[in-house]
Amino acid sequence: MESNFKILWSDEAIRNLEDILDYLTSRWTEREISNFKAQLSKQLDFITQFPYMFPSSEQNERLRKAVMSKQTIIFYEVKERVINIAYLFNTRQDPNQL
Question: Is 14 helix (H, G, I), strand (E, B) or coil?
Fold first, then answer.
Protein backbone atom coordinates (compact mmCIF):
# COMPACT_ATOMS: atom_id res chain seq x y z
CA MET A 1 0.00 0.00 0.00
CA GLU A 2 1.46 3.34 -1.09
CA SER A 3 1.55 6.23 1.37
CA ASN A 4 1.58 9.91 0.56
CA PHE A 5 3.35 10.76 3.80
CA LYS A 6 7.03 11.58 3.97
CA ILE A 7 9.09 10.79 7.10
CA LEU A 8 11.54 13.32 8.50
CA TRP A 9 13.78 12.58 11.47
CA SER A 10 14.70 15.20 14.05
CA ASP A 11 18.32 15.42 15.17
CA GLU A 12 17.22 14.17 18.58
CA ALA A 13 15.45 11.15 17.08
CA ILE A 14 18.58 10.27 15.11
CA ARG A 15 20.67 10.50 18.29
CA ASN A 16 18.11 8.36 20.12
CA LEU A 17 18.28 5.70 17.41
CA GLU A 18 22.09 5.74 17.44
CA ASP A 19 22.07 5.34 21.25
CA ILE A 20 19.61 2.45 21.05
CA LEU A 21 21.67 0.71 18.36
CA ASP A 22 24.86 1.22 20.38
CA TYR A 23 23.16 -0.33 23.40
CA LEU A 24 21.85 -3.26 21.36
CA THR A 25 25.23 -3.83 19.71
CA SER A 26 26.86 -4.25 23.11
CA ARG A 27 24.26 -6.78 24.30
CA TRP A 28 22.56 -8.48 21.37
CA THR A 29 23.54 -10.62 18.39
CA GLU A 30 23.56 -9.32 14.81
CA ARG A 31 20.42 -11.33 14.11
CA GLU A 32 18.55 -9.65 16.98
CA ILE A 33 19.74 -6.22 15.83
CA SER A 34 18.52 -6.99 12.30
CA ASN A 35 15.17 -8.01 13.77
CA PHE A 36 14.98 -4.70 15.66
CA LYS A 37 15.71 -2.75 12.47
CA ALA A 38 13.07 -4.73 10.57
CA GLN A 39 10.56 -4.11 13.35
CA LEU A 40 11.36 -0.37 13.30
CA SER A 41 10.94 -0.24 9.53
CA LYS A 42 7.63 -2.09 9.74
CA GLN A 43 6.38 0.27 12.48
CA LEU A 44 7.37 3.34 10.44
CA ASP A 45 5.56 1.92 7.40
CA PHE A 46 2.50 1.38 9.58
CA ILE A 47 2.69 4.96 10.89
CA THR A 48 2.85 6.32 7.33
CA GLN A 49 -0.19 4.25 6.35
CA PHE A 50 -2.26 5.14 9.43
CA PRO A 51 -0.69 8.24 11.03
CA TYR A 52 -3.71 9.14 13.17
CA MET A 53 -4.23 5.65 14.55
CA PHE A 54 -1.91 6.11 17.50
CA PRO A 55 -2.96 8.15 20.54
CA SER A 56 -1.72 11.60 21.43
CA SER A 57 1.08 11.70 23.97
CA GLU A 58 0.14 12.60 27.53
CA GLN A 59 3.32 14.68 27.82
CA ASN A 60 2.76 16.69 24.63
CA GLU A 61 -0.58 16.64 22.81
CA ARG A 62 0.89 17.64 19.44
CA LEU A 63 2.88 14.37 19.43
CA ARG A 64 1.54 10.89 18.88
CA LYS A 65 2.88 7.85 20.69
CA ALA A 66 3.45 4.58 18.83
CA VAL A 67 4.60 1.71 21.02
CA MET A 68 6.96 -0.33 18.88
CA SER A 69 7.91 -2.84 21.58
CA LYS A 70 8.04 -3.16 25.33
CA GLN A 71 11.35 -1.29 25.20
CA THR A 72 10.82 1.30 22.43
CA ILE A 73 8.27 4.07 21.89
CA ILE A 74 8.20 6.32 18.82
CA PHE A 75 6.96 9.88 19.32
CA TYR A 76 5.99 11.72 16.15
CA GLU A 77 4.02 14.67 14.82
CA VAL A 78 1.85 14.79 11.72
CA LYS A 79 1.92 18.03 9.71
CA GLU A 80 0.13 18.05 6.38
CA ARG A 81 1.75 15.17 4.45
CA VAL A 82 4.87 14.91 6.64
CA ILE A 83 5.51 12.72 9.65
CA ASN A 84 8.17 14.23 11.88
CA ILE A 85 9.81 11.64 14.10
CA ALA A 86 10.47 13.69 17.25
CA TYR A 87 12.26 11.06 19.31
CA LEU A 88 12.53 7.39 20.16
CA PHE A 89 12.25 6.57 23.82
CA ASN A 90 13.97 3.57 25.33
CA THR A 91 11.74 2.50 28.22
CA ARG A 92 14.81 1.42 30.17
CA GLN A 93 15.52 5.14 30.64
CA ASP A 94 14.22 7.36 33.39
CA PRO A 95 10.63 8.33 32.44
CA ASN A 96 11.36 11.87 33.66
CA GLN A 97 13.59 12.26 30.58
CA LEU A 98 10.45 12.48 28.47
Answer: helix
Average pLDDT for consecutive 10-residue bins of the chain (98 residues)? 85 95 90 93 95 92 94 94 94 56
Q: Are strands 6-9 and 82-90 parallel, antiparallel or unpaired?
A: parallel
- Among residues 92, 47, 45, the alpha carbon closest in space to that of 65 is found at 47
Pairwise CA distance, residues 12 & 19, whole Å? 10
Tell me the whole-structure pTM to 2 decimals.
Answer: 0.87
Q: Which domains does the chain have, with CATH numbers?
A: 6-97 (3.30.2310.20)
Task: State the CB neighbour count (10 A cutoff) for residue 66.
Answer: 21
